[in-house]
Each structure stands twice: as structure tokens, then as C-alpha cells.
């Protein structure tokens, strides 16, 4: 069959399908509910057949490009992923995320060690050699910290700013750090190691220094509650970054490309879970931790409770056959 | 075969040709996005600035959403296109040409941090130059690619002339070449048309304008017009 006759026979069918595909892209709801949608798979497959014929018969690009274009549109519609469901997000947070964290426990343990060991070492070091704090921070920074945790300050942990203002700042700052920790882990894990270790050093030195000058109480009262979510989230995103970096170095019994895609998939889920944890942490940090007037038992009690909740959630969440 | 075309066999047994987008159009799309996001942020900060420090907090949330969430939301819920990509006719698709899903989109947008190193997208540029499908590092790990939505304008028409049968014995490729020339001659300058047609003087026996017309007449015959 000559090309022109082929086009004359089928062009109206192609135009109809293309017009329908256009409507499906712009107004998906009503178009997909209409009865015509039932014909779509059949007419799409007929179009694919036409394309195969056109290619086999060596028709010109006028026809093949036109059919290619419609086939691509149809391919995207027919093989579209199911729409995201919100109950799956809730299910992921309650069960899927803790399971994933436990499955990656080696990387989590490594990341925790990279954060907490430098912190402990610095804490002890500053306790015995207080001048070490000046080696880590400049004197301007130290003054700023001292102002933040001054026991006479009505809002702990900040020198200025409102609750809402600090909430936004914590989200922007902390989540960006977590995401960067994860992503920079791809560079052989160097980025994740660097962020985890420096945060450990800063944390340990600051805690030690404030203890030394007698501002320890406000500091611990400030951090005890939200640190449960915040530090754990940094450990998890750091661990996800380490996993990517180490997978790049040693993909194991997989091709490197495949292994990286699998690690990226897991890492992205861990990063999203970490994001949710950091939102909770920012909320606590801005609206709860900063209140100086709460009595000690409430501060430390709530902090202990939150640590138990977070660790219990990560260690026990999603266990048991239900919905596995 | 052009090296930036990725052929994917669909379950229907036909080959889908995806034209992957190189660094330049993607950089342009990114710049457009950057300008749009800067304008949105600027517009949001005018009323928020009046709210004082609380407004700054909401401003931080706005800049957070523009930095980390904008790309993912556009790609997953708006057909794989940010506004910049829409202007440049680009689209993010999965490795098999299907729409990109949430996790791959999160991966490629978070790993932008690596591609942007050291501040000027050097890693991403090198990666797009090395990779056969011009993917940056984030795309490679996510298993996605950026394609041109419509690379070649289809619907080129062979000008209608009285059909004449070409000399016998032309192979299928030679026939296809004649039809392709006739399809595209509308996009070429008359000088270039004549130059190309003159290559086929041994076939047509004519040079210049007449040669071009002769080839178009052959093409009309090959397409089955009378």
C-alpha cells in the first residue's frame, strides 16, 4: 500500500485519538470517566500496529514521526503510575520507615558512631581543658552562644526571634542540612562523614563549654526534648548518605548502576522519613524547648518520654505480621 | 542512528524513540525556573516583611518549599515538567518512557546537591557530556532522563506536483532519501535545494530548479499520489 492511501485510510482515527489524548492530559478527571476511555487501550494498540506497519514499509517521516508522537503520548497515559495515596504515607511513617531503618542498621550504627563519638570526646576534653572550646569556636561565636543560653534569658536557645520565625528558620536550616548530608554522601561517603563528625564536635564542645561556665542547665533543658527527633534524623539521613557512598565504592554482587539505583531508592525514603522527623523536631524546638518557665521535671520528663517514643518507634514500629 | 536517541521497545512491540535533552536546553530551563522562583520569593516577602519576625519564619518556609519541594511537586503531579522545562519543551521521564514517580523524583532533586558541585553545576555538566543520554548524576541514580517533548516537527508535507515514476531499480533506502528530501525542501533555501538536487543529475538528468521539481515529482509518485 502506498503511503498516501495509508494516511487517507487512517488519518481521521489518528486525529481522534490524538484529540482524546490531549483532552485526557488537560482534563484528566472527566475524560477518563467518559465511556470513550474504555476504547483507549484498543485504539492505542491499533495505532502501535500502524506505526509498526509504517516503519516496516519504509514510509516517510511525515507518517512515522506523527505516529511516534501519538504513541509516546499514549504510552505515558497507558503506563502511568497509580496516583499517590495518602494513607500509604501514614503507613510508611508508622511501619515502613522504622522497618527500613532497622534493615539498614549497620549504616545507622556507623552514622551514630560518627556523630556521638566526637561529641563525647569533645565533651570530656572541654571538661578537663576548657580552653579547647576556643580552638573550635571564635570568641564572637562563643559570646553569641553564651547569650543564647544565659539563665536570665526568658526564651532559651535564641538571642532574638519569635516562635514562628524560629520554626521557619529551623525547618529551612535543619532539613537543608539533612538533605545535603544525604546527597553529599554520594561522594564516597565523604560529605556524610564530614557533616556528622563536625556536628558531633560542635555539639560536644558547646555542651562542655556551657557546662564549664555554669550555663549547663538551660542548655540541657533546651535540647533534651527536640534532640530526640533532631539528632536521630541527622543520624538516619547521614546513614542513608553513607549507604550511597559505600555502595558506589563496593556495590557487592550487583552491577554498580543497579546497586546505586537501589541505594538511591532506599536513601530517598530514609531522607523523606528524616524530613518528617525534622519537622516534628522544629515544632518542638520552636514552641516547647524554648520556654524557660517550665519546671525541670516537665522539661526532663517530656524529653525522656520523647526519647523513649522515638527509639521505641524505630525499634518496634512495623514489627508483627500485620500489613507486612 | 543519532546517538542521543534512546530506543525503548514498548509492550506493544513498537520502538519508542526518546530524544534526550543535552546540557544547554536544561541549563536554560533551570535559569527560567531560577528567575521564576526568585520572583515568587520576592513577591511573597513583600507582605511577609510587614509581619516582622514571624513573617521571616514564613519566608523561610517559602524558600524551603521553592528550593526542595518545587521540583518534586512539578515532576510528580504536573507531567514531569517544571515551568522552565515547560517553556523549553522538556520533560522528565522514567527509563522506560513512563511518567516519573515520587521516589525517583525525590532522588534526582536531592542529588542536585552533588551535581551542582562546586557551585556551578560542573559535576552535572561533565556527567551530561559523558553519559550517552545526557543524564546528570542525579538522573543516573534515580533512573530517569530528560527528553525533548517534540523534537522534530511532524506534519512536514511533500509539495503536491504531478507525479512521475522514478527510474526503475532504486533501492528502498534511495526511495526513502528522495521522499525525505521532498519533505524537507520547504525548510531549505532555494540555493541549498538546488545544490542537493544537483548531486542527483545522473538520476534526473536535469540541474537547478528543474532537478528539484523532478525529485519532488518522483516523491509524489513514491507516496502514491497520481
Structure description:
The complex is a heterodimer of chains A (324) and B (226). Chain A is an all-alpha fold. Chain A folds into 2 domains: 3-78, no CATH class; 87-316, no CATH class. Chain A contains 13 helices and no strands. Chain A has helices at residues 3-26, 28-33, 40-56, 61-78, 86-103, 105-128, 132-136, 139-148, 163-184, 190-212, 216-249, 256-289, 296-316. In chain A, helix 1 runs parallel beside helix 4 (61-78), helix 3 packs antiparallel against helix 4 (61-78) and helix 10 runs antiparallel to helix 11. The radius of gyration of chain A is 28 Å and the shape is elongated. By secondary structure, chain B is mainly alpha-helical. Chain B has 2 domains: 5-148, no CATH class; 172-221, no CATH class. Chain B has helices spanning 23-50, 53-77, 83-87, 102-110, 112-115, 122-130, 137-142, 172-184, 190-198, 201-204, 208-222; strands at residues 5-9, 15-19, 90-94, 144-148. In chain B, the strands form 2 sheets. A two-stranded antiparallel sheet of chain B has the order 1-2. The longest helix of chain B has 28 residues, at 23-50. The radius of gyration of chain B is 25 Å and the shape is elongated. The two termini of chain B are 33 Å apart. The model of chain B has no long low-confidence stretch (mean pLDDT 84).
What's the overall average pLDDT of chain A, rounded? 86
**Separation of the first and last Cα atoms of chain B:** 33 Å
| Radius of gyration of chain A, whole Å | 28 Å
Strand content of chain A: under 5%
Helix content of chain A: over 70%
Q: Quick one: how many beta strands of chain A?
A: 0
Number of helices of chain A: 13
How many independent structural domains of chain B? 2
Shape of chain B: elongated
Give a short synopsis of this structure:
Chain A is mainly α and 324 residues long. Chain A has 13 helices and no strands. The two termini of chain A are 57 Å apart.
What's the arrangement of secondary structure elements?
The complex is a heterodimer of chains A (324) and B (226).
Chain A: H1 3-26, H2 28-33, H3 40-56, H4 61-78, H5 86-103, H6 105-128, H7 132-136, H8 139-148, H9 163-184, H10 190-212, H11 216-249, H12 256-289, H13 296-316
Helix pairs in contact in A: 1-3, 1-4, 3-4, 5-12, 5-13, 6-10, 6-11, 9-10, 9-11, 9-12, 10-11, 11-12, 11-13
Chain B: E1 5-9, E2 15-19, H1 23-50, H2 53-77, H3 83-87, E3 90-94, H4 102-110, H5 112-115, H6 122-130, H7 137-142, E4 144-148, H8 172-184, H9 190-198, H10 201-204, H11 208-222
Antiparallel strand pairs in B: 1-2, 3-4
